[in-house]
Design brief:
tyrosine catabolism, HgmA_C, 2 domains, 441 residues, RmlC-like_jellyroll, seven-stranded mixed β-sheet, homogentisate 1,2-dioxygenase activity, mainly beta, oxidoreductase, binds 2-(3,6-dihydroxyphenyl)acetic acid, 24 strands, binds fe (ii) ion, Jelly Rolls
Length: 441
C-alpha cells in the first residue's frame, strides 16, 4: 500500500472513531430524554424502573392493590382479577422457575375468538426445519440497511425475517428478524406465543406499553419482551428500524463469568423492569394479535390489555443499556474469542453450548502488542448474525452500514476484507514509528 493511501486511511479511521460513535456511546439513558413529540409526551415522561436481573419484584400502581401473603385470594383488593403468567414449566428447578401474578381490571380471557389475521403477514417466517420453504446457503451474506417504508407501517407490519434455526413447534431454536416502521401500533397489542423477543432498535426510540408497565427503549439499549406478554409499540421519533432475535428455547440469562471473577460484562443492577402502570379504558374494537406457530391470529376485545394495576414475580419485560457493558479483553497479545463480549445467553441442554448469545462489540481499547486487532480469520461451528447500531466495525471497513446486517453461517470462512487487513497490518508499524506522523490533518 502506498504511503499517501495509508495516511488517508489512518486519518479517516481516527476521525471515524472520534466523532459520531463516541458521542452516541458516551450518552446513557439514566436520565431518559423524552423530548420530541408523538402527542403522548407526558405518558412516557420520567419513567421509573425496578433494578436487577431476574429479581422477584412486587409493584403496585395503586397502593394496596397487591394481595397480602398470598397470590390468589377469593376477593382481590379493588375487585381486581388475579392472573398468573408462567415463563417456565411449573416444575422446573426453582433456580430456573419464572412466573408472575398480575392483578388486572378484567382477565385476559375476556375476548372474542381468535381468527387468522387478515391480511396474513408475508414476511415472517418461523419454522426452519423444512429447507424447502427457505434458502440454505453457506455463502457469506451482507445486507444494506432496510429503507424506512413510505406507506404507513407499524412495528408488526414492518417485521421481516432474515434467518433462523429450529421451530416454535419444537420449542427449540430461534429466528432473526428486522423491522422498519414509521407508525405507532394503534389500539392493537402483540403477544408472541412462540418465544421471547429481544429487540435492538438501531434508529428511533420505542415507547412500549406492556402488561407490566411502560418502557422507553432508545438506540443503544435492548429490550426483552418475554414469551406471552402483550405489548404495543409507539414510535415517538417517527421512523424506526432495528434487529430482533426471537428465541423458542427458553429465556435469556446472564453468562457465567468464570475466571473473570465476580464483576464485569453486564451487571445485574443495570437491567431495568417497568413499574406497574395501567390504563382503565374501554376501547371498542381493540385488537390483540397473537403470534402462534409463526402465524398471526387476531381477536377483538373492548378494553385495553394494559389494565394490570399491580404485579409480583420474576417474569417480566426488561431493558438494558449496552453502553453500560464493561468489556474485558486481552492486555498483552492475541485476540480474545468474541464470547468475551456476551451480554446475555440462552443456554441449550449441552453444557456451554448456547441456542443464542447476544454479543456486543462496544467501543473499547485494543491494547495488545504484535497482535492483529480485528477478528482473526476463522470458521466457527456457531452461526453469526451481526448488525451495526452506529459507527464502524473494526472487522469490516467498507459497506457495513448502521442498520445493515451480515450472516456467516456455521463453518463458512470469514475474516476482514483486504483494505482492513492492510490497514491493521501496518498499524503497529505506525504506532512504533510516530515520526511517520500519521495524525489526522
Ligand atoms: O466475525 C466476526 O466479526 C465476529 C467475531 C469477532 C471476533 O473478535 C472473533 C471471532 C468472531 O467470529
Ligand atoms: Fe465471525
Amino acid at each position: 500500500m502506498n504511503l499517501d493511501r495509508r495516511e488517508e486511511q489512518m486519518a479517516q479511521h481516527l476521525q471515524n472513531d472520534m466523532s459520531e460513535t463516541e458521542v452516541f456511546w458516551k450518552g446513557n439513558s439514566e436520565k431518559e430524554s423524552t423530548n420530541h413529540s408523538g402527542g403522548h409526551e407526558s405518558e412516557f415522561a420520567d419513567l421509573e424502573y425496578l433494578r436487577g436481573f431476574g429479581n422477584h419484584f412486587t409493584t403496585e400502581a395503586l397502593k394496596g392493590a397487591l394481595p397480602e401473603g398470598q397470590n390468589s385470594p377469593l376477593n382481590c383488593p379493588y375487585g381486581l382479577y388475579a392472573e398468573q403468567i408462567s415463563g417456565t414449566a411449573f416444575t422446573v428447578p426453582r433456580k430456573y422457575n419464572q412466573k408472575s401474578w398480575l392483578y388486572r381490571i378484567k382477565p385476559s380471557v375476556t375476548h372474542e375468538p381468535f381468527c387468522p389475521r387478515q391480511p396474513a403477514h408475508e414476511n415472517l417466517m418461523s419454522d426452519f426445519t423444512d429447507s424447502s420453504n427457505s434458502t440454505v446457503t453457506p455463502t457469506q451474506l451482507r445486507w444494506k440497511p432496510e429503507d424506512i417504508p413510505e406507506v404507513k407501517t407499524d412495528f408488526i407490519d414492518g417485521l421481516f425475517t432474515i434467518c433462523g434455526a429450529g421451530s416454535p413447534f419444537l420449542r427449540h431454536g430461534y429466528a432473526v428478524h428486522m423491522y422498519a416502521a414509521n407508525a405507532s401500533m394503534e389500539n392493537c397489542a402483540l403477544a408472541n406465543a412462540d418465544g421471547d423477543f429481544l429487540i435492538v432498535p438501531q434508529q428511533g426510540r420505542l415507547w412500549i406499553k406492556t402488561e407490566s408497565g411502560k418502557l422507553q427503549v432508545s438506540p443503544g439499549e435492548v429490550v426483552v419482551l418475554p414469551h406471552g406478554f402483550r405489548f404495543s409499540i409507539a414510535l415517538p421519533d417517527g421512523p424506526s428500524r432495528g434487529y430482533i432475535v426471537e428465541v423458542y428455547s427458553g429465556h435469556f440469562q446472564l453468562p457465567d463469568l468464570g475466571p473473570i471473577g465476580a464483576n464485569g460484562l453486564a451487571e445485574p443492577r443495570d437491567f431495568l423492569t417497568p413499574v406497574a402502570w395501567f390504563e382503565d379504558e374501554n376501547i371498542s374494537g381493540y385488537t390483540i394479535i397473537h403470534k402462534f406457530g409463526g402465524q398471526l391470529f387476531q381477536s377483538k376485545q373492548d378494553f385495553s390489555p394494559f389494565n394490570v394495576v399491580a404485579w409480583q414475580g420474576n417474569y417480566a419485560p426488561y431493558k438494558y443499556d449496552l453502553r453500560k457493558f464493561c468489556p474485558f479483553n486481552t492486555v498483552l497479545f492475541d485476540h480474545a474469542d468474541p464470547c468475551i463480549n456476551t451480554v446475555l445467553t440462552v443456554p441449550s441442554e449441552k453444557p456451554g453450548v448456547a441456542v443464542v448469545d447476544l454479543v456486543v462489540f462496544p467501543p473499547r481499547w485494543l491494547v495488545a502488542e504484535h497482535t492483529f486487532r480485528p477478528p482473526y480469520f476463522h470458521r466457527n461451528c456457531m452461526s453469526e448474525f451481526m448488525g451495526l447500531i452506529c459507527g464502524t466495525y473494526e472487522g469490516k471497513a467498507d459497506g457495513f452500514l448502521p442498520g445493515g446486517g451480515s450472516l456467516h453461517n456455521c463453518m463458512s470462512p470469514h475474516g476482514v476484507d483486504t483494505p482492513t487487513y492492510e490497514f491493521y497490518a501496518m498499524l503497529e508499524d505506525v504506532l512504533l514509528h510516530p515520526s511517520l506522523n500519521y495524525a489526522p490533518k
